[in-house]
Every structure is written in structure tokens, then in C-alpha cells.
Design goal:
The complex is a heterodimer of chains A (about 750) and B (about 350). Chain A has about 750 residues and is of the alpha/beta class. Helix content of chain A is about 40%, strand content about 15%. Chain B has one domain (about 80-100, about 130-360). The chains are: A alpha/beta (about 750), B mainly alpha (about 350). At the A-B interface, helix 1, helix 14, helix 15, helix 17 and helix 26 of A face helix 1, helix 2, helix 6, helix 11 and helix 13 of B. Bound molecules: iron/sulfur cluster (SF4).
Chain lengths: ~750, ~350
């Protein structure tokens, strides 16, 4: 506090009290937020705006996306080094007086992402007025923060505000943020992987017949066929696998790499996962790549979908894909040094980012214009903080007026190093990280991840646990679709649908909360089952929900299904053919909207899905409108599944009775030494799966979610790769929007349901 | 100048302008609150509740805050035009009200003598309007289309891409809808045979029916074009939040931004008032010629007028809460390929009928 002469102070006060209290009253009652939403916390902020909590009551619902018109910068979610300069720019553009609320552990201190690409708290670059703890904070906490800020303003005696001195330079990050060092792989893992086995089965036999020379090793583990081939001829092998009707692997699910350090002659493995829709086979193909020449032929000219995945492998491992048209970094920022997923890269080593770079489209447009001798087209930067880009995606377009001639997209503004983090945490500790992948439906990520570890163990979980997972996952799917449809419609200008979608979502939150205490990021799944049994009134709650949700859905349908304007805006927009969609690696509602009825719940059913009656809605044209219809129908079908599951909910344990995986009952721990030791070891060491590699997959809300897990028998995953559905969908985006209008971009993006957490991991 | 004309031409109008300006500012401010409240109710929420009882002081808080906000002029903007633009938009939106008749010519001021001066002031009658211009309708059309200039200039002067796009959209939109708007009121014009707004209302009384019943197509066209003219949903492209951030006023902060805001709401009221005046009988009570309903006449005319305007404003908000917005090219297409031909056809049909039936003259 300033020391003022008592006399003058009195005089000043006398003069200013009335005026300043009036001004402060106005300022505090009219806090217009700029929602700098990036991650899961943004979803909870949306809940704060929704009907149950209604931020509008405080006069703060006037969300302004123009920084100059907003008063309080709400930083909702993780800010990473790549996003840092953007955040700073937005802050600098705001008009005084301005305040900053930092929502959630991530914005405040980096949260549990003590990793190479995550800013350890936004106060590295902007001053913060109120911090909200929590991960994510509940809407009540957000309201509380607004009230806190109002109290601060009330106590303020300044009449005018100086501009905060600008912090012109970003701080150099500290290189200390990490949890655990990494261990080198034991020999046993390498031996396991290189071991050649006699494998039966149509694909394996056909492969041996066709490529006797190429096969290095072949093995089947937990039903996953995995073939290692030489890297020299990989292109020919891949081409045959795709085009030969005997294999017919039309869909490339994933390309990634694994680092085995010096334990093996060739340090890296490039791993391809593929799927044949015609004969329902899956295949894992691997090729070893040495450290001194980490390169391999690209697959982009075979599957379009290999594009970004290869870029990611390049970014993370430094593997060069020869012939790739645009091999740039994708997730980390352009100034980043090193390849973070290499095992010898320190998990917490950050590099400062001070700039945002132009994308290749600028250069392309310039060249084109020069060669044609015409004026340069307008280059428009859309995002990452553009309202329709959902906070984290960036599109740069060359436009002629409103028409898009060419575009490029850029991601990575929410890259929070999930894969590196999972290598530094135990199997249990990874579960909360998975929640924050697709945070719209966090339950399903947990389930899929747990499935991968269970698959590694080769165990089945009890029926009751299966049913609980099914019921809650289907609810999550509904919640996810509701947000997707709601935000898509808001982007189109139909505001109210957002509120209508959030009401049932809020009720689903209540159900989840009653099970595990979490609303958005639930962490309810455990390896081998769920964390605890469902509450006593679970069945009633579910039955009630089955009745309350349909009217909300009908409301949204009534407003939109036959709405002329909505149809005008959505029909035919970004229509994509089934072949193209498969080639890009589309899955989920986006693929089904093109007429391909691929749904893992029907094609590779587990958890009794083959006994539930439900239909797979498919569209025809694969445009925005069809995606909307498919999602709305899937909500109804999910309700059907839930109804059958809740009627047949089995009694029994909610966790597997396997002492390698789940904790012994408390009674035993207190009364006998075996259980006590067992408990002690599980807590100390965590669970120790066998050595091996598996790929587990499930129908998540926006497509096939897959986890490729390599275990070296230790307590932490050796490699955990997440195949997020939207990663493959979004890479097609800049190709799909060419020739469309700016407004269509907005409609298209919303309909693809891109969730940054999963996209950028 | 003698005293009477001084009173008629200067004193009375000034008083009226003062009252109107105050009222209008208040109405606009509260229209923003109304919008937030009504849309909130449509979305099953409460809307502003904390600033004053039921949020009643919200607009005042917003106003004070905006006025005291730092005023940023982008360094690369054209400073003069940038500053001028909001004013150019706001002023026409207000001065249009000069000719809008809120009520009949029915205020009687009895004659009196100013004591001490011994000056006789004659008895006079005046109306609930500032002036009754004999080309009132033209005046409205002319003045209200100046507002667009401010928007274009504002978007251009910001020297930034999104505002420019917003300004271009807005220019194209307003220009093309202005044409259809002009045609849509032609029918009314022909039936009333006058350009004076007061006389148009009187003509509706004489015709025995509000023009909306005689000119239903014209009315619908007028309202659609009116919504488009004011840049409101589903035609709110120039400031489409999800596409252009904040459209033409992205770079404006604080007070200047609020001027744009005020202008937009004033324009909404103008369009609603015009719709009421031209088609819904202005200040007339429902069924003005049915004596049995005479008790309705107990409610003064200007209240009827306000009530009707409110209904239209409600429609505005209703649209906003429920419809997606059009795309730029679709909007143009509707304007030129759908509304224009219908408007012209309407004019022709009306003209023929007026000639044939002898019109109302
Ligand atoms: S992880 Fe997600 S929910 Fe947790 S603080 Fe970060 S952004 Fe918020």
C-alpha cells in the first residue's frame, strides 16, 4: 500500500469515495470475459455458462472474443509453450482495466503435466489476479472466482488504470519439471520382440507366401498378429497390403515408432497398425530403423492418412520418412530442440517459444500468384484463438474474398506430452492422464486404456464391471455427442441448442459424480474393473435419466432437423466419399455419415455388445448434415443399449479378483500377512504386467480410440501410444475446405468433433 | 420571429427532442437487458440477476464500465476515420426518430398569458412526434441508409482483416436489402397516397383496416429486409461471432464500441417502429372503427404504439435465440433472387388493384 500523508489521504478519499465506488460497482457488475479456452477446463467453463450455473447472473455472460472489448481474460486449460506467445498477444491487446483469472491446475502451475512442452503456470508470461484450483475446477469454483474478483475490484481505489508494464520477453523456462527418470528396456523385451514364431491364420500365411524374403519375425500375442519386415522394401509391402484383395487393408489406423535405445541393433521400430474392413482383420507391421540413419520410405502415397502420423513420428522420434511431401514438426513448436519421445530425452526439458510461424500455404499462394502474374490472395489466419477454432486449432487460408483457395492447418497448441508422461508414471497413474485425452467423454478413454493393460495380462473382468463400463460409456457418448452437436449449431449461429444440450449433459454429470465424485474427468475406471461399486440408487438414477434425456434430444431435433437455414448451411458441406474417408483413416460418426457402417461395437464386440439390440445409423453423403443426423440417432441408440444393460445388470464383484492387479480386500490386509504384503507391493510397485505388446481399441465417441502398449514388465508402460480418432479426421480438414466459404469452415469443423486433448495428446 | 412560431418551431421541438432522446437512450439500454433476459429465459436460465434487483441496473453498469474503459486506437488504423465511424453510424440511427409518429396530434396546450410580460400565448395542438414531414418516409429511408457508411468506414479504418471482411459483408448486405426494402413499402405508399407517416397512419384509420391486412406480402418482405438491414439474426453476418470474431467492430474498445452497439439497437427500434407505423396502424388501437371496443381507446395511443413495437422487438430476440445464420452467398441469393422479384410483383399487383378499385383516395 502506498503511504500517503494522512491529510491528503482524507481529502482524496472525501473527493473520490462516491465516484470510485460507483465506478467499481459498474466494473464489477460488468465483467465481460474473454474465454481463452484450450482444454478440459474450458468444458467446465461451458458448464458454468450453461443453465444450471448460469454465469449470466453476474452479468458476465457477454462473452467477447475481441480482446479489446473484454474485461477479464479467463485462461481455461493447459497453456503450452507453443500457445504462450498467443496468450501473451491476446493479453497485450486487451484494454485497461483488465484482469486475468487462471482456471485449473494447468493454467496455474502446469498441473500434472510436468513435461517438455507445457508452460508451468501462465504467470510465466501474464499477471494473474485470481487462481482457481482444481482439475478441472467445478463450476461453483468458477463462480466463486468471479465473486472473488468482484471483491477485489470493490476494494480498488484507483480511478484510472495505467497500462501494466509490458513484459516484452518470455521467460526462459526452467528445465526441471519432471517426475521420474526413464529406464532403459531390459533385454527380455527386446528378445520377446525379435522372437520369431510359427503363426497360423490366413493373413500370416498369405504374408509368408507373398513376402518370404521380407519377413524378419512374426508373432501372435493375445490375438494381435505382428509382423516385422525389412525396411528397404517397406513401400512395396505396404502397397500390396492395401491393394491386394487377399489382404485388403484399406484403412491405415496408425503409424508410430518405438525407441529401444542401444539395447537393439536397430534402435527404432516404425509401427503400422492397419485394418481391413472387408475381412475384418487387423495387422501390426513393424520395421526396424537404425539410429545412424533413421529413415524409411513414406506411406503417404499409399494411404493419405499416413500424412500426419508420419509427421508426428518425425517430430517425436526424428525418423525421416523419405518422400513425405511436407515433413515438418507437428505437435511441438517450430523452435523446439530435440525429439522428445526418444528415451534419452529428459521428460521436462523445455525450449522457449517466442514466435508463431507462417504455414506453407503462404508460400504456395505467393508462388502461385507470381507465376500467374496476379495479385496475392488475402492470407487469413484463423485461430488458434478464433472462436470457431475451439481454442486450439489454427488454419491459415489463402482467400479470395470469402472463398478459400488454399489452406493449411496447424495443431499442437495443446500438446501436453501424454505419451511421454505415461512413460514416467505407473500404470495406475496413467488413468487420470487418459481422462484428459478426449475430455468430452473421459470415461471411454479410461476404459480403452484399462482394456489394453487387461489384454496384456490376458484377463477378463467381471460381468458387473463390464456392464458398469458399458452403461457409463454410453452415457459419455451421449454427453459427447450433445456437446458436439450443440457447439456445432452455436457456430452456425443457432445459440440455444448449446444450452439445450448442456442440460442433459449436466444430469449425466450428476450420475457420474454419484459413482466416483468426478464430473468431467472421472478416473472411475481401474485396471481390472472400476474404482468402487456403483451407488445403491444407481439403477433408479439411470432409469430416470432414460426418461429425462429423450425430451431434450427431441427439442434439439425439432429446432433443427427440418430447419431450412440449417439445411442450407449443412447439406453438401464437406461431403466426402466413403473411399476417401477410409483412405484418410476416418472412423466413428464421421465415417458412418459416409455410409460405412463400421462400428467396433458391432464388428469386434466385447462386453456383451453382441447381445444388445441396437442399430448403426449411417448417412449417405458424409456432409455436415448427415453427421448431425448420425450423431442424433446414435444418442437414441445409446439410450437403447443403456436400457438393456441396466435391466440385465449382473450382481457380483466390480473388480477382478486377481492379486496381481487389484488390491486385496481391506479385511484381509488387516488380518493376514499375505494380503498385507500383497497390498504393500501393489502400492509400492504398482502392477507389473507381463512383457509384450498389444493394441486395444474401442468405439469412442468420435471414432476408433486405440492404445498401443509395449510393456517391459516394469511398473511403468515402456511405450503407450494413443491413436486418437480425430487426429486422422482433422488432417483431412484443410483439404476438405478448399473451395468453400469462410462460413463453411466453421460449420465443418464443428461437425467433425475435433477434441484437442485427444488430437494433440 | 414572433412568439408563436418560436414556440412551434423551436421550443416545442426542443422539449420533445429532449424527452425523446432521454427516453430513447433508456429504452435502448434496457433493450439490451431485455435481450439478455428473454434469451436467457428461452435457454432455461435466469440471465442477469445480481446487479440491481433482477439485474435491473445491469445496463447502467455496462454503460459506465464501457465509458471508462481504455480507448485503444490501433497504431496502423486511419485515426480520423476510425474515430468518426461510430458517430456516423449512431447519429442517423437517432435522427430518424424525428419523423416517427408515436401518437396522434392530440396534445392540447391551452392558451395562457405569461404573467408580467402580458404576452398572450395562443391555444395550440401538437402531436406525439417531433415533426410531421410531408416526405417522412423518404427521409427515413434516406437517413437510415447513412448508418451503413459508418460500418464500412469503421471496418476499413481498423486496417485489420476480420473487420474489413465484416464491413464488406455488411455493405453488400445492406445495399442489396435496401432495394427490396424500398419496394416492399411501395404498396403502402400507393394505397395511402402520401409520404407523411402521420398521414399514412390516418389513412389506415380511414381505410378501415391496417395495411398489414391489405399488404400482407409487403409486410413480410419489409420485416425480413428490416432484420437484414439491422444485421440481426439470422442475417447477422457482419458480426458473426463464430466466423469473424466480432466483425467490423473487432478493433473497437470501450466507448466507441458501445456507440456501435447503441446504433444497432436504435436501428432495431427504428425498423420495428416503421413496421408498426406502416403496417400495424401506428398508434391506433385495435379495431379503431368498432365503437363497441371503444374502451380500448382509454389506453393512450403512444402506449399502443410502444406495445406493438415491443412485439416486434420480441420477434427480433426470438429469431436470435432459435435460428442459425445464413451464409454470405445464400443471403445475397435470397435478397436478389427471392425477395426482389416478390417485392416487384407485389408492387405491380398493388398498383393494378389500386387503379382498378379506385384506390383509397
Ligand atoms: S488437466 Fe484439464 S481439467 Fe485439469 S487443470 Fe488442466 S485443463 Fe483443467
Amino acid at each position: 500500500m502506498k503511504v500517503i500523508e494522512p491529510e491528503t489521504q482524507e481529502r482524496e478519499n472525501f473527493f473520490t469515495t462516491t465516484a470510485s465506488s460507483l465506478i467499481n460497482w459498474a466494473r464489477k457488475g460488468s465483467l465481460w470475459p474473454y474465454p481463452f479456452g484450450t482444454a478440459c477446463c474450458a468444458i467446465e467453463f461451458m458448464a458454468t455458462v450453461s443453465s444450471h450455473y448460469d454465469l449470466a447472473r453476474f452479468g458476465s455472460e457477454v462473452v467477447r472474443f475481441a480482446p479489446k472489448q473484454s474485461d477479464v481474460l479467463m485462461v481455461l486449460g493447459t497453456i503450452n509453450d507453443k500457445m504462450g506467445p498467443v496468450l501473451k498477444q491476446i493479453y497485450d491487446q486487451m484494454a485497461e482495466p483488465r484482469w486475468v483469472i487462471s482456471m485449473g491446475a494447468c493454467a496455474t502451475c502446469g498441473g500434472f503435466y510436468r513435461a517438455y512442452h507445457v508452460m508451468q503456470g501462465i504467470d510465466e508470461i501474464v499477471p494473474v489476479d485470481v487462481y482457481i484450483p482444481g482439475c478441472p475446477p467445478t463450476p461453483e469454483a468458477v463462480l466463486d472466482a468471479v465473486i472473488k474478483l468482484q471483491q477485489q475490484i470493490e476494494a480498488d481505489t484507483r480511478l484510472s488504470y495505467e497500462r501494466h508494464p509490458r513484459q516484452t520477453k518470455l521467460k526462459t523456462p526452467e528445465v526441471n519439471a519432471t517426475v521420474h527418470a526413464l529406464e532403459p528396456p531390459p533385454r527380455a523385451l527386446v528378445r520377446f520382440l525379435d522372437d520369431n514364431q510359427e503363426v497360423k491364420g490366413p493373413i500370416a500365411e498369405a504374408f509368408k507366401r507373398r513376402f518370404p524374403e521380407e519377413v524378419v519375425s512374426m508373432r501372435e500375442f493375445r490375438g494381435d498378429l505382428s509382423i516385422t519386415v525389412k525396411r528397404e522394401n517397406i513401400k512395396q509391402v505396404l502397397r500390396t497390403l492395401k491393394n491386394d484383395p487377399e489382404f485388403d487393408f484399406k484403412m491405415l489406423l496408425d503409424v508410430t515408432a518405438v525407441d529401444y535405445l542401444s539395447e537393439r541393433q536397430s534402435r527404432y521400430d516404425v509401427v503400422y497398425h492397419m485394418l481391413s474392413l472387408s475381412n475384418k482383420h487387423r495387422l501390426r507391421l513393424k520395421a526396424a530403423v537404425p539410429a545412424d540413419d533413421p529413415s524409411i520410405d513414406t506411406a503417404v502415397d499409399i494411404w493419405k492418412g499416413a500424412d500426419w502420423a508420419e509427421r508426428e513420428a518425425f517430430d517425436m522420434y526424428g525418423i525421416r520418412f523419405k518422400g513425405h511431401p511436407d515433413l515438418r514438426r507437428i505437435l511441438t513448436h517450430s523452435q523446439f530442440e530435440g525429439h522428445p519421445l526418444r528415451k534419452d530425452f529428459p521428460p521436462g526439458q523445455r525450449t522457449m517459444c517466442t514466435e508463431t510461424t507462417d504455414l506453407p500455404v503462404v508460400e504456395r499462394a505467393r508462388k502461385y500468384a507470381e507465376s500467374m502474374g496476379i495479385a496475392h490472395p488475402t492470407i487469413l489466419n484463423v485461430g488458434p484463438q478464433h472462436p470457431a477454432m475451439h481454442g486450439t486449432f489454427r488454419l491459415q487460408v489463402a482467400a479470395d474474398g470469402e472463398k478459400i483457395l488454399d489452406a493449411d492447418s496447424e495443431i499442437g497448441y495443446l500438446h501436453r506430452c501424454f505419451e511421454k508422461m505415461s512413460e514416467t508414471h505407473t500404470y495406475w497413474q496413467v488413468i487420470p492422464f487418459t481422462d484428459r485425452l478426449n475430455y468430452m467423454s473421459s470415461m471411454m478413454n479410461g476404459v480403452t486404456y484399462a482394456m489394453s493393460v487387461e489384454k496384456m495380462f490376458g484377463v477378463d473382468i467381471p460381468k458387473r464391471a463390464q456392464y458398469i463400463r458399458v452403461i457409463l460409456s454410453e452415457f459419455s457418448r451421449i454427453a459427447d455427442h450433445l456437446v458436439c452437436v450443440g457447439t456445432n449449431l452455436v457456430d452456425l449461429g443457432a445459440l440455444s441448442n448449446f444450452w439445450y444440450g448442456f442440460r442433459p449433459r449436466e444430469e449425466i454429470y450428476d450420475l457420474l459424480e454419484s459413482c466416483c465424485g468426478g464430473r468431467l474427468t472421472v478416473s472411475y475406471v481401474r485396471i481390472g474393473g472400476v474404482a468402487q461399486d456403483i451407488p445403491a440408487d444407481f439403477v433408479q438414477r439411470v432409469r430416470k435419466l432414460l426418461e429425462t434425456i429423450p425430451p431434450y434430444v427431441d427439442d434439439i431435433e425439432k429446432m433443427n432437423r427440418h430447419n431450412k437455414i440449417f439445411k442450407l448451411r449443412s447439406e453438401g458441406i464437406t461431403a466426402i466419399s466413403a473411399e476417401d474417408a477410409i483412405d484418410w483413416g476416418f472412423t466413428g460418426p464421421t465415417l458412418r455419415a459416409c455410409g460405412v457402417p463400421y462400428d467396433i461395437r458391432k464388428w469386434f464386440p466385447n462386453y456383451d455388445y453382441d447381445q444388445f439390440e441396437f442399430d448403426i445409423p449411417v448417412g449417405e453423403r458424409g456432409d455436415v448434415y448427415d453427421r448431425y443426423l448420425v450423431r442424433m440417432e446414435e444418442i437414441r441408440q445409446s439410450l437403447r443399449i443403456i436400457k438393456q444393460a441396466i435391466e440385465n445388470l449382473p450382481e457380483g464383484p466390480f473388480q477382478i479378483d486377481d492379486r496381481r492387479i487389484s488390491l486385496p480386500p481391506k479385511k484381509g490386509v488387516y488380518s493376514n500377512i499375505e494380503d498385507l504384503m500383497n497390498h504393500f507391493e501393489l502400492i509400492q510397485d504398482g502392477i507389473l504386467p507381463p512383457i509384450g505388446e498389444v493394441y486395444s481399441y474401442w468405439e469412442a465417441a468420435n471414432g476408433e480410440l486405440g492404445f498401443y502398449l509395449v510393456s517391459n514388465g516394469a511398473k511403468r508402460p515402456y511405450r503407450l501410444r494413443c491413436r486418437g480418432a480425430c487426429f486422422y479426421i482433422f488432417q483431412a480438414f484443410n483439404h476438405m475446405v478448399k473451395g468453400l466459404y469462410m462460413s463453411d469452415v466453421v460449420a465443418a469443423l464443428g461437425s467433425l468433433n475435433i477434441v484437442a486433448g485427444e488430437l494433440e495428446k | 420571429m414572433n412568439l408563436d412560431s418560436f414556440i412551434d418551431w423551436i421550443l416545442l421541438p426542443l422539449i420533445k427532442i429532449g424527452i425523446l432522446f432521454g427516453l430513447l437512450s433508456l429504452v435502448i439500454a434496457y433493450l439490451t437487458l431485455l435481450e439478455r433476459k428473454i434469451i436467457a429465459f428461452m435457454q432455461v436460465r435466469l440471465g442477469p440477476m445480481r446487479v440491481g434487483p433482477h439485474g435491473l441496473l445491469q445496463p447502467i453498469a455496462d454503460g459506465i464500465k464501457l465509458m471508462l474503459k481504455e480507448d485503444i486506437v490501433p497504431s496502423r488504423a486511419d485515426k480520423i476515420v476510425f474515430t468518426l465511424a461510430p458517430v456516423i453510424t449512431l447519429i442517423p440511427a437517432f435522427i430518424v426518430f424525428a419523423v416517427i409518429p408515436f401518437g396522434p396530434r392530440s396534445i392540447h396546450i391551452p392558451g395562457f398569458t405569461i404573467p408580467g410580460l402580458n404576452v398572450q400565448v395562443a391555444e395550440r395542438t401538437t402531436g406525439f412526434f417531433i415533426t410531421d414531414l410531408n416526405i417522412g418516409l423518404l427521409y427515413v429511408l434516406a437517413v437510415s441508409s447513412i448508418g451503413i457508411l459508418g460500418i464500412i468506414l469503421g471496418g476499413w479504418a481498423s486496417n485489420s482483416k476480420y473487420p474489413l471482411l465484416g464491413a464488406l459483408r455488411s455493405a453488400a448486405q445492406m445495399v442489396s436489402y435496401e432495394v427490396a426494402l424500398g419496394f416492399s413499402i411501395m404498396g403502402v405508399l400507393m394505397m395511402a397516397g402520401t409520404l407523411s407517416l402521420v398521414e399514412i397512419v390516418n389513412a389506415q384509420k380511414n381505410a378501415g383496416a391496417w395495411y398489414v391486412f391489405l399488404q400482407p406480402v409487403g409486410f413480410i418482405l419489409f420485416f425480413i429486409c428490416g432484420v437484414a438491414e439491422t444485421n440481426r439474426a439470422p442475417f447477422d453476418l457482419p458480426e458473426a461471432e463464430s466466423e469473424l470474431v466480432a466483425g467490423f467492430h473487432t478493433e473497437y474498445s470501450g466507448f466507441r464500441f458501445s456507440l456501435f452497439f447503441l446504433a444497432e439497437y436504435a436501428a432495431m427500434i427504428v425498423v420495428s417502429s416503421m413496421a408498426v407505423t406502416l403496417f400495424w396502424g401506428g398508434w391506433l388501437r385495435p379495431f379503431p372503427n368498432i365503437a363497441a371496443l371503444g374502451f380500448l381507446g382509454l389506453v393512450p395511443g403512444f402506449l399502443w404504439f410502444a406495445l406493438k413495437v415491443l412485439v416486434f422487438l420480441y420477434f427480433y430476440l426470438w429469431f436470435r435465440a432459435s435460428w442459425p445464420r445464413y451464409r454470405y452467398d445464400q443471403l445475397m441469393k435470397i435478397g436478389w433472387q427471392v425477395l426482389m422479384p416478390i417485392a416487384i410483383a407485389n408492387v405491380i399487383v398493388t398498383a393494378v388493384l389500386v387503379l382498378w378499385l379506385g384506390g383509397s383516395r
